[in-house]
Please model this.
Amino acid sequence: MRRFGVFEGVFVPTLLSILGVILFLRLGWVVGQVGLWPSLLIILLSNSITFLTALSLSSIVSNRRIGGGGAYSIISKSLGLEAGGAIGISLYLSQAVSIAFYITGFSELWVNIFSGQNQMIVSMVVWAILFFISQRSAKIAFRLQYGILLLIALALFSIFMAFKGFSMIGFSGAVNDISFWRVFAVFFPAVTGILAGVNMSGELRNPERAIPLGTLSAIALSFVIYSLMAIWFSSIAPAHILVENSSIAVERARWPVLVVLGIMGATLSSALSMFVSSPRVLLALAKHRIVPFSSFLSRVNDKDEPVPAVMITSLISLVALLVGSLNSLAVFLTMIFLITYGMINFSVFVEQAIGIVSFRPSFRLPLIVPLLGVVGTLLSMFLIDPLFSILALLFLFMIYLYMLRRDFPGSWPDVRKGVLMFLAENSLRIAEQLPYHPKLWKPNLIVPVFTPDSIDRWEKFMEGLLYPNGRLLLVCKSSQDELVDKGERFARDLRKSGLFAISLALDKDGFAIIRQAIYLSRQYLLPSNILFLELVDGLSPEFIQGALHIAEEENMGVILYKSNSPLDGLSSINLWIREGSPNVHLAILLGLHLYRGLDTKINLIQVVKDRDAVERGRTYLEKMKDVMRLPSDTEVYVLLGEFMDVLSSAPGSDINVFGMPQAELDMDWLDEVSQRLNTPMAFLKDSRQESARA
Model:
């Protein structure tokens, strides 16, 4: 049920999350550490990053409904559920930890005012109260924030009424115990509240309008307040006092009690906001089975409150409360939020850059805006702590790899394929303008299939030929349902093993199916270079010869395959090499691919009629083995006699490979070779685009 509008659901929780612990308890410390001008620069840089991210958020939500889960949902619907899950888990943990951060700030102030009390006991009491409120209802929590907003307004009024005048502003002077970027890291959680409203996206009446309007308004107002507060702090005390006294805002205000109430209200409201919103992120993760025990964590009560998610969030925040200090928690939160902001900006940059039609937000940004957001977050991370940044990114990448192995239900929009296609299309467009060299050759086959049994006969041979980076375009006649289904299964199995394979069903016959397949391969910008044709019964010599002519016209090599039974394995291959053969390069490349894919042993065979030519033939094959860098276990055989007579004396192998004459194919010769050898055979014809020597 969608219950909240712009003011109640986004502006107030966002503003209260920003005007919290850092404003009253750490901004003075920031000014004391680095001075006024650097402090204003820190405020400007932090708000610039959040402003850019807020613009990206506004662009996304004006394009689609993001649903529950906030930033997790945004990233999932742009970069995939796996990337969203990796960020969502980290973001949820950081928001759960931020509850401890805000409670620690409250208890720090409490013990400064009421000395002699135990800070941890105070923290535990506050934690218990907030837990109780968050368990009751998000509506109650949001209603309480109106009173807290009034307290903060009164606190700020009390502070600014004590302004000493511009002549008292300390433009110079700083302690400089800590580096600028470390101070930036302590300050940055002040501006991470922009996700407070986004996290409630599933419960907003009109998130497409509420999130941009509420978030950007809260950022603008908070930027003014932080800048004025930095100036105020610099006017009330020297740098060392600002660093040492975290509650100086109370002491120097016109009416200290109002500031105390305002600080307590601000810290409690920020903690309460996270207590309410972060379980919603966990709920969204659980609904999509991202986290363990998802069926339990995705439960809600009759008031639509995620009670199990609230309980787990409370436990995580309790652990963080027991082990963390305010500054250490601040640095941790900064790094996680910077990563999240970077991914949000990256999502918008990717969707806009690849130019997909579905991304047409009403709130459109120049491409430079999300790009600056990505660059700004990454630079900030590495300037703060390079080692932690690398470890954090590696941790996210490990979660992402784990997510890739999961089988998630449903279908999510995902631009990852669009990104890869965008890069591939542009890369291939550039590659098309560059000259081709045979060194770049890879097997890219067009395979027309006419009977379902064909695939069984050459399946093993094809796998070895394509490995590791060959490509296959399988084409079948659309009216043959059994063949179409089998072709698709074969292509799908090849894709699962990491190969590029497509199966198409075409409403064509004869030569038309080959020409159409060649045309389609050109449209993929990956033109095929080999026509693979099985010599099956019913395939006329005229058709085979016509197919050879088409391949020659298209500068494609040819493999004619003949087998009476499926290949059980391919442990060895005989390459019959005639001295001066124009088909030697394709034969060698075929052998090398089978060697790489199936560890197939290669035998080089040459037939000579004259005994005096035996040694010359052996020398020729040995030189070929060396020049073409064949495996060291390649064997060389020279057979003496007439070609047809010596076929049976060749070394045993699983397949025999021969070259074809460049003139008209002699089908009688091919049939006779097939009858004398009881193995699968491949007859090759080079296109002159191959080179085994390159």
Observations:
- The longest helix spans residues 81-113.
- The mean pLDDT is 83.
- The chain is about 60% helix and 10% strand.
- The radius of gyration is 36 Å.
